Amino acid sequence: MEFKSLDYKLIYDIVEPQSKVLDLGCGDGELLSLLVKGKQVKAQGVEVSDEAIYKCVEKGLSVFHSDIDSGLQGYPNQSFDYVILNQSMQEVKRADFVLQESLRVGKKVIVGFSNFAYLRARLRMLIKGRVPITKSLPYEWYNTPNLHFLSIRDFWAYCRKNKIKVLQAKYYHRTRFMPILPNLFALNAVFVIAR
User: Fold this and answer.
1) pTM of the predicted structure, to 2 decimals
2) Which residues of the chain have pLDDT under 50?
3) Which domain holds residue 113?
4) Going by DSSP bridges, is the β-strand pair 63-65/80-86 parallel, antiparallel, or unpaired?
C-alpha cells in the first residue's frame, strides 16, 4: 500500500481493523479511503469544502457537509473507536471545543499537526524576521489556513492541563522519526489521546 505522507502511514498503523472511524476535516478522503480498503473500517467524514466532498463521494465515502467548529451534536458519546483530526485542528476557530467534542464522541482521538516550533521556522523568524515557511507550513502569512500556531510542547501542556491521556506520540521530519528533542527537530507530530 502506498501512502502520500508519513502521517497517513502512522495513522493507518494506529487504527485497528474494522473500527468505527470519524475523520474531521477529511479533505479529499484519501486517508479514509486507505482505511476503508486496507482496514475495512466503518468510516465517516466531515468536511466543509464542497470540492473535497465531491472527491470523497467519487471514492464511495460517506461524508457530511459541516463545519466542525459548530460541534458534533448529532453524534452520541463514545460512538466511534477513533476520531481523526489530521492537519485540521490548527485550522478550526475553536480548537479547544473541537478537541473536547472529539474526545466525547471518540474512544481515542488521533491528532496530527505541524510543529510551529521546528528549528527552521525558528531560524527564519530569528534571522529574517519573517513568518516561517516550511514544507509542512508552505503558506505566506496572508494566505494561510492556519489560525492556531502550536508546538509539540504546547500540545503536551494542553493535555496535562485538561487531564487528557496521551496514549502515543510520534514525531517526524518528512520520512524520519525524531525521538530526540522533537519540539526542535520534528516537522510534524501525531498524537493518540483519550479521556
Assistant:
1) 0.90
2) none
3) 6-117+149-194
4) unpaired
